[in-house]
Amino acid sequence: MHSYYDGMVGVKIVDRPSYFEFTNPGTMRVSKESFLRGQYSSIRNTEIASLFRRIGVSETAASGGPRILNTVLQNNLNDP
Questions:
Q1: What is the pLDDT of residue 75?
Q2: Predicted structure pTM score
């Protein structure tokens, strides 16, 4: 729901030897620090966000960053 879907490049997933690398077109609309702290959410695609909430596969606003960061810290993974 945060990706920039109007561009000419799609989402890219690369299988590295010890991790997966995800690349979305465009940039985040909030700073990396704000995202990881869960301070603010600026959804680019509100229709997709609404659909995801209705079918129960979306988190509450601004909760994804802290969940990702906690998982990284608990499992000694590369920084997001």
A1: 94
A2: 0.58
